[in-house]
Design goal:
This protein is an alpha+beta fold and 124 residues long. It is built from seven helices and three strands; from the N terminus they run ααβαααββαα. It has a three-stranded antiparallel β-sheet with strand order 1-3-2. A hairpin with a 2-residue loop joins strand 2 and strand 3. The longest helix has 16 residues. The chain starts with a helix and ends in a 6-residue tail after the last helix. InterPro entries: Npun_F0494-like.
Length: 124
């Protein structure tokens, strides 16, 4: 890999580690596509526990956009153009396959607090 590829890989890995989605979300994306509304309806299945009390799928859509921006996710395309669903990109797939400890690292209290402040949530 070139140096730029390593930078992209590190950024994608950090983005996955710091996002609100859990391992099951990404495992599902390896096989299928998901929309923000689907994830919101089944948030206990797809989100980390500190994000269980979000009240709108807009938060999830914003998380999708962050991961799209760093190259981990992409919009699904059908015969009429882009859809509301996302799929995992080859870079995202490579990060998941090469980093078995990605979701084993616990979130620190400070990180949880920063997340709560950032999204104006009550800490648990």
């Amino acid at each position: 890999m070139l140096l730029i590829d390593q930078k992209i890989f590190r950024r994608a890995k950090q983005g996955i580690r710091n996002c609100s989605f859990n391992l099951f979300f990404f495992q599902t994306l390896l096989e299928d596509s998901l929309s923000a509304e689907n994830v919101f309806q089944k948030k206990s299945k797809y989100l980390n526990e500190e994000f269980m009390f979000i009240s709108s799928s807009l938060f999830i859509e914003n998380e999708f956009l962050k991961l799209i921006k760093i190259g981990v996710l992409r919009r699904e395309v059908d015969g009429q153009g882009l859809t509301a669903k996302v799929r995992i990109t080859p870079i995202g797939r490579q990060v998941l396959e090469s980093s078995s400890d990605l979701f084993k690292q616990k979130t620190t209290f400070i990180k949880k607090l920063i997340t709560c402040i950032k999204f104006k949530l009550l800490p648990r």
